[in-house]
Amino acid sequence: MAVFEMESWFVAEGKEKQHDDAMRGWLKWVRAHRELFREWKSVRYFVKHVAGNDSNRHFLLWEYDSLADYEAYKKRRANYEGPYVEYKKFDPYYMEVFDHSRMGLEFWRDKERDLWIEEAAPASAQFKSALPLPGVQEQVTFLYYPDLAAPREFYGKVLGLEPYYEQDWASLYRVAAGAAIGVVRSSDKQQPTADVKRDAAMISIVTTDVDGWFSRLKQVAGVVVQKEIYDHPSVPIRAFLLRDPGGYSVEFFQWRRQAGATNS
Predict the structure, then answer these.
(1) Most exposed residue of 4, 68, 89, 189, measured as fewest CB within 10 angstroms of its CB?
(2) What CA–CA distance (Å, rounded) separates 158 from 160?
(3) Alpha-carbon span 107 to 109, nearest angstrom
């Protein structure tokens, strides 16, 4: 069951321009660092109007897939440590642009979600909705390496995925609800070449901000871009590919609406 967190506030008196600049800066920073907020299914920003009049009350609405995702994010960000030190600098809450005496916080849960009218992704008739397999909770893709130091650095720090199971021989990283990547130290003496790995398996991460991911990752020292960002000529996706430290391909892609698609 999804959880929605709604925060509302009024702008501090005389701080309208600073407030608008702060909100736009915050939204841009979050989009550019989407990996830090992987539990956020969406975040939306509104201003309330009543009978055509601006009420001056602003709203942010966060959506999480579950209460567990909400709690996991709040716990990780609780003290603004690590990468969240920089995030706090962009958080308008700490910029004195909100009237803190009139802030509100609400939690909503979805009802009858299967009957909601929502845009489906991908927006293509050739893809049909698939029902989850009964009793299946998770899917893990395992990749094998002679040494785990470099892949742990890549998936844990460069991509910002959180490990939820760690042993000296393996680590599992949460990508999204029900999906994970496992890096495993191989016991084989014979290791396949990077070219063989590239052709044998590929990790694909589906995102709603592929340009933001590409903009950030291409600037990280040591990241190998296998293919620059592009619009696929025959599949409705926008994508780019990286090469991980073991030679595996890691694709980030975003579904695009097909030409000719209509809305009712």
Answers:
(1) 189
(2) 6
(3) 7
